[in-house]
Amino acid sequence: MALFKKNKNEKKEAQMNSELIRSLDQKPIRYVLKREPDGEVIIGRAGCINVMDDELSIVCNNVDVFRGKIDRIHAATLLSLEGIVLTYTEDSGETTAYVAYYKYYR
Predict the structure, then answer these.
(1) Which of 26, 44, 70, 103 could form a disulfide with 65 if both were Cys (CB 3.0 to 4.6 A apart)?
(2) Are 71 and 61 spatial neighbours (Cβ–Cβ below 8 Å)?
């Protein structure tokens, strides 16, 4: 019985991940970081997250800084709620993490 429950939980988690990513559509961002083994590098400023069909893209200053299929992305909101961590798994199995900080209005 536990075998079926595990599969059901994985499907539910994938659905929640997809819903979280789709909720980011047209979200303005301040900047995007790419996490590397030796630190973090800013790869874009003043941009927007776009979700079209099954693809997420982050555009900063009219340049695509990240583009990937939704089913290959794991999303996690920062505890401060000021941004999101997007972990992308490439075809080769290599994972890359990006952090997008939202633009906020006071």
Answers:
(1) 44
(2) no
The residues, ordered by sequence, that sit 6+ positions from 86 with a Cβ below 8 Å of its Cβ are 56, 66, 68, 73, 74, 75, 97, 98, 99, 100
Q: Mean pLDDT, to the nearest integer, of 51-60?
A: 93
Residue 106 DSSP one-character state: -
Taking the CA of residue 53 as centre, how many other CA atoms within 13 Å lie in the half-sphere pointing to its CB?
Answer: 4
Between 69 and 106, whose confidence is greater? 69
Pair 67, 52: CB distance under 8 Å? no
Q: Which pair of structure tokens corresponds to residue 40?
A: 């973090």
How high is the pLDDT of residue 49?
94
Residue 60 near residue 28, CB atoms below 8 Å: no
Q: Please provide the DSSP assignment of 71-93 as one string.
A: GGEEEEE-TTSSEEEEEEE-TTS
